Amino acid sequence: MSGLNVLFAGFGGQGILFTGKVMAYAALMEGKELSWLPSYGPEMRGGTANCSVCISDEKIGSPLVVNPDVLVAMTLPSLEKFENAVVPGGKIIIDSSIIDKKVERTDIDVIYLDASNIAEENGLKGAANMVILGRLFKECGFCSEENLDKGLQKSIPPKKANLLDSNRKAIRLGMES
Amino acid sequence: MSEKVLMKGNEAIAEAAIAAGCRHFFGYPITPQTEVAAYMSKRMPKVNGVYLQAESEVASINMVLGAAAAGVRVMTSTSSPGVSLMAEGISYIAGSDVPALIINVQRGGPGLGGIQPSQADYYQATKSTAHGDFHMIVFAPSTVQETVDLVAKAFDLGDKYRMPVMILSDGMLGQMMEPVELPEPKEVDNDSKEWAACGHKNQRKHNVVNSLYIDPATLEGLVKKRFERYAKVQAEEQMAEEYLVDDADIVLVAYGASARVSRSAVDMARKNGIKAGLIRPITLWPFPVDAIAKAAEHVPKFLTVEMSMGQMVDDVRLAVKCARPVEFYGRTGGMIPTPIEVYNKIVEMNGGEQ
Questions:
Q1: Which residue among A34, A40, A62 sits closest to B264, beta carbon to beta carbon?
Q2: What does the domain layout of chain B look like in residue ranges?
Q3: Where residue A11 sits, what CATH number does that domain have?
Q4: Fewer C-beta within 10 Å: chain A N or C terminus?
Q5: In this predicted structure, what is the pLDDT of residue A47?
Q6: CB pairs under 8 A between A and B
Q7: Separation CA B243–CA A93 (nearest Å)
Q8: pTM for this structure?
Q9: ipTM
Q10: Residues B5-200+207-236, CATH architecture
Q11: Fold classification of B240-349 (topology level)
């Protein structure tokens, strides 16, 4: 793997930025070059949120992912906004619990993951983002499993350490999906 | 050195300043800079420092002037419109020969503009910050790590030359996270500043920090003396990074965020058989004239890439003494150029289709 550019897109409160941060920290643990860039603006909870993560063996140039290798779409507007930007041969991971739409492009690999429902059925409401991260890990293998877990540990502040296990469980569900 | 952590550029600036011995921060919130102040508000009380949110940028910069006059390491941070409000105070700091660090996390302008990344404050930072004959040293980091490293250097050079120093960041560098190794905290000796107005305890003549000189001959003499120092800064403190310049047919000149984009474009060009290179100014004032003039001896064409309508491009043209064509590509208003856009411009300059 020489480089992986991922765009996480959804709305504020879904853990879009956090998901990117876990991935970025995992890449750091793996000894890779990386960048994490959030969209920022006046929007708050409920507004659009997206985040670019670049992982590479080489220095990262522009940290803004315009044409992602992988798009993670957690809302319909974000899918519609970015589906045509995905590179040919790339992937889209869609939270199909939230998004009904089917992607028409045939030159990319589309994964419909019932992430929100999987999370909720397992008592992990709100952890759809981590289910998706688990699946993203399974699809792209951007680090070792050990480093993914380290990345998660680094991303959760000590005060919230009680949330570590539920996030781990959600990632596991995604890996096994 | 400590282990690498992920930090936003804005937070890294604040932590690096504390590590460099800064214990005084005065500021006023503005996007996309607010994390600097927010981080300082949490950290300063823990290191016995002062964090103060003033009532405005005008008040902030004058508090900076006051602290600087007392000889302590002091800083403020703001974004583009905020620098305009601080302009008068920055001129007073320069005219008083005191060091201070000013961070500009640039956003789109003019006016209230937007809040997305921009580099449209180049002229303001390097040429026309405010009234009077003066300069600031201006650093333009392009990674979070470099931002951290330059914060320490900025304080050191400010103290050395007794002048204001600006770090010209932007919304992208401020908001993004990258791995960063933080420096070990440093003790600073504020007592060594013999000019500081910090209490003479009846042990010496009192110091005066002032920028008002009614007698024109006196003022001219002071300004000329100051410009002797500036000449030394220009001779000794230019910084630039060169990337694949030696055999290049086209050299891009870009700083900060647009240098990152340009580097990607250079790599694309090289993969497609075009010998492109990059000179990345790290100091914008003093402008790295020497590196660019040296490259102009063998590089036939230059391309300046900025997130503005073209400001630094003037300095590049001056540096090559108009002996080589210098073209420009830019986006503005908060738009970030993509590597492919810059690559297409390189192809066009190389004579068309690849």
A1: A62
A2: 5-200+207-236, 240-349
A3: 3.40.920.10
A4: N
A5: 77
A6: 58
A7: 37
A8: 0.96
A9: 0.94
A10: 3-Layer(aba) Sandwich (3.40)
A11: Rossmann fold (3.40.50)
